[in-house]
Amino acid sequence: MSVGKICTRITHTVEPDESVRIAAGRMTERRVGTLVAVDDENRPVGIVTDRDLVTRVLGPNLDPATVTVGEVMSTPPVSVEESTPIESALSLMAERGMRRLVVVGGDGRLVGILSLDDAVELLVEEVGAVGRVLTHQTRATSPFL
Questions:
Q1: In the CATH hierarchy, which fold is given to the domain comprising 3-141?
Q2: What is the DSSP string of 41-53?
């Protein structure tokens, strides 16, 4: 299965020249902890998380109104194409110690974000399906049920 099948397609974005205060407000309003910084053609150029805002702006006591996202975002963002197999994406996440990857189309434009939670949800669904098969088989073959 490919990353494109399970990634979150509703991705919240920010422009690198926007202030951290605007980014934090957007995160609060949309109830997310990650924004993908994009250029004018919707190509990912960075990623900023709520943790980045705390450790790179609030911790050092910088002014969120004057610091830009571009100054604190992680760049370049680690990304995979939507056709990438999930196993490859998970290997990359493990290798880099990351919980999320930016997902791009063949043209390099943003299409979504893959989080570790997306992979866990898929695993839970698959384990549930296996459980249903086993339950069905047990009931069908057991003379006591």
A1: CBS-domain (3.10.580)
A2: TS-EEEEEEHHHH
